[in-house]
Task: structure prediction
Amino acid sequence: MEKNSDPGLVVVGGVAAGMSAAAKARRMRPDLPITVFERTGYVSYGACGLPYYVSGDVPSVDDLIHFTPEQFKRQRNIDVHVHHEVTAIDPSVQTVTVRKPSGEEREVDYTALMLATGASPRRLAGQERFSNVYTIDTIESGLALQRLCAHISSVAIIGGGFISVEMAEAFRRHGITVRIFQRSPHIMKSFDTDMSLLIEHELSRHGVELYKGVGEVELEGIDRVTHVSTDMGRYDVDAVLVAIGVRPNVELALEAGVKLGITGAIETDDHMRTSVPTIYAGGDNTQGYSPVTGTPCYFPLGDTANKMGKVAGENIAAATRRLAGAWEAPSSRCSASPVRAQGSTNTMQRPSALTSWPRRRTTTTAPHTAHTATRSRPSCSPTRRGRSWEGR
Ligand SMILES: Cc1cc2nc3c(=O)[nH]c(=O)nc-3n(C[C@H](O)[C@H](O)[C@H](O)COP(=O)(O)OP(=O)(O)OC[C@H]3O[C@@H](n4cnc5c(N)ncnc54)[C@H](O)[C@@H]3O)c2cc1C
Result:
């Protein structure tokens, strides 16, 4: 295959980290060819708003989308291909294999590659057997859940993190009976217990049934789940939402020889460079470093993804920018009350040896060196939409 002189930047994954990297690289290098491949039908949206689309607070998914592929082309000269999945990377010749919507595959060269493949919801063993078990991560999954609300009267939510709390509110707004099953003694375990108790009180006040400290959850039924069984009882359900956390999408990276960190996500230096030359990574597939403890951490949050993407994009384009760390800054809404943690709560403190971010300085000239620590950004948070659950 004949090589282009500078095939430019190829980005895998077109949401927070991927589009931030592409946009930043474009601002710094107007001449750089930039191509984005995204396997779903949508790019550049706030997944944080999906529960508020399901609830009806956000009238259309279009309201969650910042830029369409056409706008990226027209306004920023970035080529965005949706329904295109990258299936392999060959770092020795700097190519990716891309599967087109037709199923046909082609090879695309890159000068720099940005892996922004995000994370996927964790699943319960065997949940694929049932047609009424859902997860929420993409626009497509938000659309499916929104349609579901008109057809069910009860739902079991497995897991008690911020997505569960937000989705409980969304379902209650449709008058659906909601039961949350949580393994740990309290919900929202990234908050300290006093905060979790307040959130639990608010959920109960709005009719959400909480089952905490449950053991194994069993889904019962033939093609559809009809009952959820736990050591606390057996409950009728019309549908199940599994929200038990995410796992980083690292398969492509692993096959390309990219090193993973101790969290199981991709390890980068503070310039977002992976262990393989010319391959960068950022977002929910990548581990960060806590500026509080100095240890590797995994905070799959939108703001962290945007910051990692921007730093990668800047370094790919020219400059030498450091990411000084990643704060876990979960924020959510429970009824009309915003709930938020910043920095390191007592619950987040885990005993581990102090390590420092593995730095590898570039030999290229650096126009400037800046330090960026992530912090939460209200624009991703639903707290400004303060309607009560009964408000429909
Ligand atoms: C319901 C919900 C609510 C949330 N609420 C909040 C919140 O309030 N605050 C907050 O900070 N964060 C929140 N988050 C998390 C936030 O959305 C993520 O941290 C953020 O989207 C991560 O961005 P990313 O670009 O790393 O990954 P993703 O958003 O997961 O995007 C990765 C993209 O890569 C694509 N992809 C993967 N592999 C390939 C491949 N091989 N080829 C082509 N494309 C590929 C995927 O299809 C996906 O679209 C929420 C998430 C969800 C699902």
